[in-house]
Amino acid sequence: MESDAVILGAPIYLLGPAVIIKMITDRNIAFQTGVLQHAGKPEAIIGVSGVREWETFALPMLNVFVLTCGIRVIDQVMFYAQGSGEILLDDSAMKRARKVGSNVFEAASKPVEDRTYVGDQSVCPVCHQNLFSVNNGILECALCQAKAEFKMMNGKKKLVFDPETLKGHRWSEEALLEHFSLAVLPSGPRFLKERDEIRKRTRKYLSFLNEKTEKEATV
């Protein structure tokens, strides 16, 4: 809350970051109501994977934590090393890591409106990720839901993004607050009203399990 900037790093195992990242991201949903306090705060993301092409969801998942807070990603990088401390032997990686720190410092020293993405090349102009799904021939960024189509321009295929979804993407201030106020907050009172019926229906399955256990014990 009090930081001028944030750097988030994690080891990458089976296609994504360590499980603690998912845990704190899920718990971090409460920060959606405080998105105004974080808007524009610069962030950098670092992933370290042991094997290339086994990090598909690494940067996207690390970005989810950042985007939930309303923080702005200005740099991100994936490194490759397996043994503990082995990355220290990669001079180019260490140089790039220092550049990450420099980029974050420079961004934090600028006004919010002048903080721009300077990280590795990406496809989506909103979340700077390359993870897309296809729905009825329309490409949709799996992270921010910005939509795009391939169009022929000057004899070449180019990915053209829908300007409306670029403005009203999943992580926009309005969308985050709407999600929290309409989808998350009402779920508490609704659950309290339904709790007795849920317990009633749960007993059916608990009794089945108890009967099954008793039969197995008899056999």
Task: Give short descriptive properties of this protein.
globular; 42% helix; Rossmann fold; 219 residues; alpha/beta; three-stranded parallel beta sheet
The total tally of domains equals: 3
**Shape designation:** globular
Total count of helical runs of at least 4 residues: 7
| Beta-strand fraction estimate | 15-25%
Secondary-structure element string: EHHEHEHEEEEHHH
Describe this structure in words.
This protein folds into three domains: 1-119, Rossmann fold (3-Layer(aba) Sandwich); 121-185, no CATH class; 192-218. The protein contains seven helices and seven strands, in the order βααβαβαββββααα. The chain has helices at residues 19-27, 35-38, 58-68, 91-108, 163-167, 173-184, 187-218, and strands at residues 6-12, 42-49, 72-80, 132-135, 138-141, 147-153, 156-161. Strands 4-5-6-7 form a four-stranded antiparallel β-sheet. Helix 1 packs parallel to helix 3 (58-68).
Spell out the blueprint of helices and strands.
Elements lengths: L5 E7 L6 H9 L7 H4 L3 E8 L8 H11 L3 E9 L10 H18 L23 E4 L2 E4 L5 E7 L2 E6 L1 H5 L5 H12 L2 H32 L1
Parallel strand pairs: 1-2, 2-3
Antiparallel strand pairs: 4-5, 5-6, 6-7
Helix pairs in contact: 1-3
Short description:
About 40% of the residues lie in helices and about 20% in strands. The chain is of the alpha/beta class.
